[in-house]
Amino acid sequence: MPRLLSLVFVCAGFLFCPGALFAQWEEVPSYEWREAIQIDRFQNRSFMVNDLGVLYRSDNHGLRWKALQPGGSTLDEVEAFAGAGQVFLVYCASGNIWRSEDLGDSWTLLIKIFPPLPGYTSSFVAAGGQFFLSHSSAVNRLDAVTGQLTNVLSIPNSHINLAVSGNEIWATGFSGAPRMSPDLGQTWISYPNLNPIELGFQG
Predict the structure, then answer these.
(1) In 3D, which of 102, 105, 103, 87 has the Cα closest to residue 146?
(2) Who has the most CB within 10 Å: 2, 4, 49, 64?
(3) Rounded CA gap, 96 and 76, in Å?
């Protein structure tokens, strides 16, 4: 009975003041409403990259979003991002990798590398306090201090996608079985009976 009364009061409130139930919602301008390419959490903040390569951060669980500016401008389109410890890195379409230690309020250029290949989407993940970047048919470990890249996996004629579960790094997007590294890229184990879609991959 109490639950029924609660429902009656809610319905009555909606009939007499329909805006009351949605007082905390804000309309997003149509030109800002884009497809989200990557959404993730880091240090209790939400980060999102849209299909224009603009990086946003929300400090209040998605109620409001702030556009971040690696390199001082949103013109350096963000391809992917990852965070570990106090370090947050973004990989851009220009090949720039920007580093922030204050959740994206300020940035320093870590290194400029090869830009993403046309038609390919790069993955950027963090595991065990280390960063890993996929670029077409290769996966590289990235030193967040020096910017040094170390190849940890190469599969010719592939489009490698990465995902992380704990300290396990999963790779797929190529002919054959998905692969998993339990030791931060030192060795890779093949899983022939595992469907890539079960890992959240489409390829």
Answers:
(1) 87
(2) 49
(3) 8
Q: Residue 14 falls within a domain, yes or no?
A: no
Helix (H) or strand (E) holding 179: strand 179-181
**Are 144 and 109 within 8 A, CB to CB?**
no
* Domain presence at residue 74: yes
Question: How far are the Cα atoms of 58, 118, 170, 181, 183 from residue 127, in angstroms, in the given order?
Answer: 23, 27, 11, 11, 10
For residue 90, tell me if it sits in a domain: yes
What is the domain-level CATH number for residue 48?
A: 2.120.10.80
Range of the domain at 39: 31-199
CA 114-32-203 angle, 5° bins: 45
Q: State pTM to two decimals.
A: 0.78
Per the rule left: phi > 0, alpha: psi between -120 and 50, beta: everything else, 184 is: left
The structural domain count of the chain equals 1
The tokens describing 152, both together, are: 């940890």
The strand ranges marked E within 4-123 are: 36-42, 45-50, 55-58, 66-67, 78-84, 87-92, 96-100, 108-112
